Amino acid sequence: MTEGDPKHMPRPATFTRPDGRLLHFYGPFSGEPVWPPESTGHEVAFSHRRWHPVRREWVIYSAHRQTRTYKPSADTCPFCPMTPDGEIPVKDFSIAVFDNRFSSFQKNPPKPLPIPGLDLPVEKAAGNCEVIIYSADHRASMATLPQERRELLVQVWGDRVRALMEMPSVQAVMPFENRGEEAGVTLHHPHGQIYAFSYLPPIIETMAQSFREGCDLSKLAELKQYTIDETAGAAALVPPFARFPYEVWIVPRRFRARPADLNAGEVSDWARLLASVANRYDRFFGRMCPYVMIVYAAPRGMEEFFPFHIQFYPLLRAPQKLKFIAGCELGAGSFLVDILPETAAQSLRNIEGVP
Length: 355
Ligand SMILES: [Zn+2]
Hints:
By secondary structure, this protein is α+β, with helices and mostly antiparallel strands. The protein has one domain (about 5-350): HIT-like (HIT family, subunit A, 2-Layer Sandwich), CATH 3.30.428. It contains 5 helices and 16 strands. The strands form 3 sheets. The protein has an 11-stranded antiparallel beta sheet. Strands 4-3-6 form a 3-stranded antiparallel beta sheet, with no helix packed on it. Helix 1 packs across helix 3. Bound molecules: zinc ion. Zinc ion (ZN) binds near residues 77, 79 and 138. Zinc ion (ZN) binds near residues 79, 80 and 138.
């Protein structure tokens, strides 16, 4: 199944910060890191997870995350190069990945205490959370990054999934991007995150069961009525069963388990479709569209049937109207959608001027 050529996989230059967190640069970067002299390290506060006995799922508690950076001005952005006490101690870079200062999971957390008076499973929140910065340019976005940078981004996803899966406790790795304040973004510098889970989260578990039983995403790529853009290796489409208005998936034509399995042509195809989707959203809604983008890769042991693919959830249903998750969705898990997927596909397909 694997056609990805290891020789073409990017390898990072890796540094260890004074506080022990790892920092990786992919692609060219300028100079040796200059660590701020006042950098005395950050206090490690551990998360833990508790079993929800009614919903039968894990809930992660990370009380230390309340103090994380909230909407800094552009000149104090910790993701811009050389910001004092920021994350990027070099003058310029292509793509940077580092351990999240406010991580929800830790590499070696201690065993948490039980809940007094309640016999519920409480476990370590083992795993890792990384931040991935797409560009040194504070104003860049998925829609405006050059093609070569998006190709590098796809390759970096591949390398990070590979690297994090080498941690014995990690079961699944999920890169994602929250875009825009409506998606909860507190830092506007173009970036995403990569979560490495030590357990199988419920949505990924359900998806795995479907794929194990033969659900085939490549069949969706043949549905012209739902396709909004396509390449030789992948198609961008509104799934006929979309739960969000204007939801878009990028699906492979041939099975690939993880982004590292893509060949050079497919990397280029996926990179082009990422820009196509972001540009179509921004043009259709007439503003930078807030969305949640999720990169799914095969969890441990599921490399034979769980396909690499990407799902976009735009948080708008019209230019000035937000899509909210409300009573029926939150309470019953049933999504109400007021636009047909085929109509949404037609609208997004017909956007003109998309590069
Ligand atoms: Zn910035």
